[in-house]
Amino acid sequence: MSSPRTHVASAFDLDELVGVKGATTVSVCIPARNEEATVGQIVERIHTKLIETRPLVDEIIVVDDHSTDRTAEEARSAGAKVVDASQVLVEFGRGHGKGEALWKSLYASSGDVVVWCDADVRDFSTRFISGMLGPLLTDSSVGFVKGFYERPVDGHVRGGGRVTELVARPLLTMCFPELGEIVQPLSGEYGGRREVLEQLPFVEGYGVDIAMLIDIVNRFGAQTIAQVDLGERIHRNRPLHELSPMAAQVMQAAMRRIQPGLVPDAFTLSPPDLDAHKISYAERPALVTIESYRQLHPRLAD
């Protein structure tokens, strides 16, 4: 049984990556909702170090997922192309959530290789980007890369988040053992070749990360996946009551791939003394099935 290969971000030299990049184009996509405090700094660092100083990245796209703050303005002033999620693929209706933003960013971007990172990282380093690009630019057999990192909280170093350790990794180890060695299957730093990503459906909400891994293994095999140690990452630590809906969406997406019909498409979480949360499943179709996308990419012409 093949397992994903593991790399360390620091092993990839920026100048060497620029050299092997050649004609390959790279898009960095950042889904964001109400992240005015951090998104500008992230975009500025990528633009300065990976576009102006070393031409490793060709475009930075921030998909604004219905923000009510200055997320769009901060991202645009820092050098990103800002895409309003509500204006992309409008024929599919007004969706929302992480997976929706990722799907629309893939549509709106043009790179041969696409990497994503979260917009809420407080100590962003461009090694997150160069580290994920390393395997994709140096090994043609790699189609998808997942980042992992240490997560210090209150001065203490932790591994994966609570949903990762209590839900995602146990589920994958039991039901998809070839993914059992993925350190952080729910991390927001990952990327892949467009020719791989465009063939995948995108789950709308927080189930997108685990669903993407499972779909890639089922379609392309675990040997196409690599993971990269990105070092240390600090971001906000969500309170426990916010993690319950996230965990439910992760389980729902995974269990639908274990056995269709095993779990309902919609249900309600009703924790005591807290607001109820309606959990519903929806996924967007693979972009290769959408005519307007095919027109944007002539290689897909019939």
TrEMBL record:
Residue span(s) of domain Glycosyltransferase 2-like: 27-156
Name used for this protein in its record: Group 2 family glycosyl transferase
InterPro entries assigned to the protein according to its UniProt record, in alphabetical order: Glyco_trans_2-like, Glycosyltransferase_2, Nucleotide-diphossugar_trans
Listed transmembrane segments: none
Keywords: Glycosyltransferase, Magnesium, Transferase
PANTHER family hit by this protein: GLUCOSYL-3-PHOSPHOGLYCERATE SYNTHASE (PTHR48090:SF10), UNDECAPRENYL-PHOSPHATE 4-DEOXY-4-FORMAMIDO-L-ARABINOSE TRANSFERASE-RELATED (PTHR48090)
Pfam families: Glycos_transf_2 (PF00535)
Molecular function via GO: glycosyltransferase activity
Lineage: unclassified sequences, metagenomes, ecological metagenomes
Cofactor: Mg(2+)
Matches recorded under CDD domains: DPM_DPG-synthase_like
Family recorded in the similarity comment: Belongs to the glycosyltransferase 2 family.
The UniProt record lists the keyword Glycosyltransferase: yes
Entries under Gene3D superfamilies matching the protein: Spore Coat Polysaccharide Biosynthesis Protein SpsA, Chain A (3.90.550.10)
Keyword Glycosyltransferase (UniProt): yes
